[in-house]
Amino acid sequence: MSLESVQFSGRRTSIGGNTLEIAKPSEVSGSITVICGRNHSGKSFILKRIHRCILKMNENLNQNIESNNSSIQIDNVTCKFNKKLDESMSVVMICDVSDITKMMKDVSPIKDSSLKRNIERPLGKENFVKTDQFVQIIIKNCFEKFRIECFMGYKGFTEPLDLELLKDEYNDDYRKKLLEEIIPEKLYLTPRNSEIVKVFEKLTYGKLYYGVVKPKGKNYPTFQVYLIFNGDSIIPYNNWSDGQKVLFSLLIILFFEKPSILLFDEMENHLHPEYISMALEFAKQYTKQTIITTHHPHIIFSKHIDIVNYLEVLKQIDQAEPEEEMVYNRNTPSKTPIRGNILLNKGYSKLLSTYKLFDSYDTQLLKLSSIVLDNFNEILADLFLSLFSYGVKEKNERSDIQSEQLYRLLSNKIEQSGDGKIEVLEYGTGKGRMIKNLSKIAIEKNINKIQWWLYEPFENQRNLLRNNEKLPFLKFIRIPETLPDSNFDVVFLANVLHELSPNAIANILSYSANHLKKDGFIIIIELFPLLKPEKYSVPLASIEWSNLAMEIGFKVNTGLIPIRNALHEAYYLQLFNKSSMTLQSHNIELIIKNYWNNQVLKNRIGEYEGGNNSTEVDEINKTLRLLTTITSISAYNLGLWNSNNEII
């Protein structure tokens, strides 16, 4: 028997239908269905009713209640099953993932007979809410099977194992006898052929051991598992991270129980994306049908997911004034909200619906996305750079072409200046790469006509610049603590603006424009797209930056810098304050914010929709860059891109 669909009360509305599509298992693997949506959209409510419907269907089968109806309704949720009603469905419902780790802590070799009898009672309505008890007995049974695997590999027993006695759920004496024969001062390696052990050790980078301890106040020993790192760091189960506990518990339940259907509310809690991927793969291998509620994009976009349902509640605005007091009758049923389901069968639909989750009630998604970006593999990114030669062309070990073009701009500026001297500000100097490259081609008679200000907002970087004796033209360089109150002929913003929020960009452009001398200009240098995704970054193409600069009020000249890789565009913009009027930072910020949301965000989502499912490295990197830009703009809109990310 399998679940075919789930219908909730109501009619089809403007926000979607009232039926959840449930993926069907294939002959070779199980299926995974996702239910996502904002908080209070009814995900957990529906999942719990699915569980109760399955229990009711099983009860009917166990009591030989004949019915041609293949549907069960609980409250306002109806589950439709296939017509093969000859066998019941084993179901595991996990409402709170942390609960299973607490239950694992209490697992002992002594069976809780009273709990066992409680579970074996007829499944009446009063038992529907006690899902934790069902999970607890399942964990006990599954952990017992793992313990048996370990016992079978132990070579110190005085007599051969009696598997019938060992598997007897009520024979506590035999299990206690075996545990007492295991030396408590030693730890033993778990079976190497165990699928659970292989997967768990691969993900945790440790080795899984077992042993016995005798807790104070108890007259029997208990079985314990340990993680050991580097042969000397021994971590007992109670001290594992929550993610390690959840992963181990899930692997045991899925492998030994092999439920017909697994219902999991917010699976992502405590789990790193790598753990999530393995748990999903394990579920497909050992469970016929899995239904997960989630907010997590790693699950929504996972290759292991078959169907994604997006629940949305119709917003109803109450125009009436709220009453100061009102009568509350606990027996009066609450009014069911009007909700609809949208089947997300395209990447574009998934992206837009996931974007809807970015609201003030649910910022967890963006924070988790930031964690994913934080853990982006830098070694892999560096490998991309070396394989595809993304660097700027160099010429005879001299300067790069970018520096040659910029030097021509400076030389022209020197010739145009009345006194033959100019002042240049480089904002966000970093390690001084630009002036080092210019030194390869600049001639002394021109250098002594430039007063070069290197401004680096980070104190540690400023100190490195001051202590760098190899920095060229030291006598012509100033490294101020704060932005100088001077006027400049040229302001360089090289590879800086893409990593700043609209507020920081506005502050920089306002300062730069209002500190230009007559006929002075700003040079923006950027690369598009970036070589690799960067957390909190919104890179723009040259045409986008040109249009944005003109909206702000600049006159713009654009130049391209030749590079080896045709997939990337290196460019510079020459900005003039055409009105010579003071540009207010607040006004610039509003223009940038509107441009990001009305132009950039729509363009990136459109590019994502037009992409393909290729596994080529360039396509994967492109997808990561698009999603990074979308996430960064969303983070700024929600206020998650805070002052800690700014450099001004």
Distance between the termini: 62 Å
Number of strands: 21
Structural class: alpha/beta
Globally, the shape reads: elongated
* CATH fold naming of one domain: Rossmann fold
Helix content: 25-40%
At the first level of CATH, what is the class of one domain? Answer: Alpha Beta
Count of DSSP-assigned helices: 21
CATH superfamily of one domain: Vaccinia Virus protein VP39
Sheet having the most strands: 7 strands, mixed
CATH architectural category of one domain? 3-Layer(aba) Sandwich
Strand content: 15-25%
Work out the oligomeric state of the chains in this entry: single chain
- The strand line-up of the biggest sheet is 17-16-15-18-19-21-20
**C-alpha Rg, in Å?**
32 Å
Q: What would the average pLDDT be, to the nearest integer?
A: 76
| Uncertain parts | 11-15, 109-131, 358-399
Key phrases:
648 residues; alpha/beta; Rossmann fold; 7-stranded mixed β-sheet; 6-stranded mixed β-sheet; 21 helices; 21 strands; elongated
What topology emerges from the helices and strands here?
Layout: E1 3-8, E2 19-21, E3 31-37, H1 43-62, E4 71-74, E5 77-81, E6 91-94, H2 97-105, H3 113-119, H4 131-153, H5 163-167, H6 172-181, E7 188-189, H7 195-204, E8 207-213, E9 222-229, E10 233-236, H8 242-257, E11 261-265, H9 273-286, E12 289-294, H10 297-300, E13 307-313, E14 339-344, H11 347-356, H12 364-374, H13 378-388, H14 401-416, E15 422-427, H15 433-439, H16 444-447, E16 450-455, H17 459-466, E17 477-478, E18 488-494, H18 502-514, E19 516-528, H19 542-552, E20 554-561, E21 569-577, H20 585-610, H21 617-637
Parallel strand pairs: 3-12, 3-13, 6-11, 11-12, 15-16, 15-18, 16-17, 18-19
Antiparallel strand pairs: 1-2, 1-5, 4-5, 7-8, 8-9, 9-10, 13-14, 19-21, 20-21
Helix pairs in contact: 2-4, 2-8, 4-8, 7-8, 8-9, 11-20, 12-21, 18-20, 19-20, 20-21
